[in-house]
Amino acid sequence: MKINFPLVIVGSQWGDEGKGKIVDLLSNQATHVVRYNGGNNAGHSVVLNGEKFKLSLLPSGVLHKKKLFLSQGVVIDPKVLLDEISFFEKRKIKVNLTIDPRVNVVMPYHKALDRATEIWKGKKATGSLHLGIGYCYEDKNNRFGVRFEDLINATSLKERLELIFPLKKLQIEKVYGQKFDLTMETIYKEYNRYGRKLKKYLGDVSFCLAKEIKKSRVLFEGAHGTFLDGVFGTWPYTTAVYTIAGGVFPYVGLSPQKIYSMGIVKAYTTRVGNGPFPTELFDKTGNKIREIGGEFGTVSKRPRRCGWLDLCLVRTAIRLSGLDYLAITKLDVLSAVDKIRVCTHYVIASEAKQSQKKRSLRRFTPRDDKGKIIKEVPALMSDFTKCKPVYKEFRGWRNDISKVRRFEDLPKEAKIYIKFIEKQSRVPIKYIFVGPERSQTIIL
């Protein structure tokens, strides 16, 4: 099956859709694999021959020994990156990596600020992992950060710390009332050591890829999911970056041009952290999906919130990223469910009806109200919190499909489910994943 390049991989839900596996799979066809956004808060897992490789900064193409790039839209924790490089080198896998000099570096005070502000927010906390990613992006946008070019230059690193560190220490201790025991000298020594080790990976990613994109097969690996986008996601429960396909242009440094896009859709929906989730399940079915699907964060280990597939999310993701293809992941997990639901649209009840009687989102049925019908995620988050899902129900298949490799061999009920998703989304489904291994893939 032919897939067009250059190609960007986008999560169509709240992340954790299985982007790592599809990038690993498509890396076999690619020549260059580029991570273009996010930091080590976005983990990808790839399973090969029974071994699980957990990645948080290196692009998933590392297992195919491809040319790897971290563009300026990424922020790096140098210790995490060095540990990942060491992990693969110990397994005799060469890491052919280029890091853009404009990449910003996550510093210890970013992590301390992340933790301090989450404590201060209390019950309204975003659900951050305290990895400092958002605060690194904040400094980047405020021209107050440490870039990779500073990290690899001892003089520049010292000058940046002398400017930045005193203010950050005051902010953590005096504004938020939290302890911060690290000294500027300690941080300098540690990060100068990281810089010396990473210096060999320096390269102008923008310049290199501008030349390669017309003649090579470039694969862009996105982090997070569409609805964690810092602008178009379910704000403020989002990341600090653009997660939609168009972000690839400024985050890499490319001129606007045709880049194909593939959206990854989990066969159900999950979300980590706080924020609205219309199709969330609070019953034994939700617990079953979580356990069978292994729905625990790659980086955080936190249990993911689980719910039914939400086509309103998928439609919106298709519009925002202009998706050319879809890939369905974790279809095998639903084999354990007798009756499967899909949210086809939302209803927002009239104000009069809402004040008359409050209803739980998970108990809503189409007969409850004749409110406004919405088929995409509304722009107003105040509206989104009022959205009640309307479901179409499907029969489960109760068959083990993990060994199926052809669409024709799937149970009838599974084929009906997939065809319904394709018809509703109006985007061709090219891959269906029926297990975590690279080989457990159906190509349509």
TrEMBL record:
It catalyses: IMP + L-aspartate + GTP = N(6)-(1,2-dicarboxyethyl)-AMP + GDP + phosphate + 2 H(+). Its EC number is 6.3.4.4. The keyword Metal-binding applies. IMP binds at residues 16-19, 41-44, 143, 239, 302. Binds 1 Mg(2+) ion per subunit. GO terms for cellular component: cytoplasm. Keywords: Cytoplasm, GTP-binding, Ligase, Magnesium, Metal-binding, Nucleotide-binding, Purine biosynthesis. GTP binds at residues 15-21, 43-45, 304, 330-332, 433-435. One of its GO terms (biological process) is IMP metabolic process. Substrate binds at residues 298-304. Mg(2+) binds at residues 16, 43. Its cofactor is Mg(2+). Pathway: Purine metabolism; AMP biosynthesis via de novo pathway; AMP from IMP: step 1/2. It comes from the Bacteria. It is an enzyme of class 6 (ligase). The keyword Metal-binding applies. It holds the Pfam family Adenylsucc_synt. It is found in: Cytoplasm. The active site is at residues 16, 44. Plays an important role in the de novo pathway of purine nucleotide biosynthesis. Catalyzes the first committed step in the biosynthesis of AMP from IMP. Homodimer. This is Adenylosuccinate synthetase. It comes from Candidatus Roizmanbacteria bacterium CG11_big_fil_rev_8_21_14_0_20_35_14.
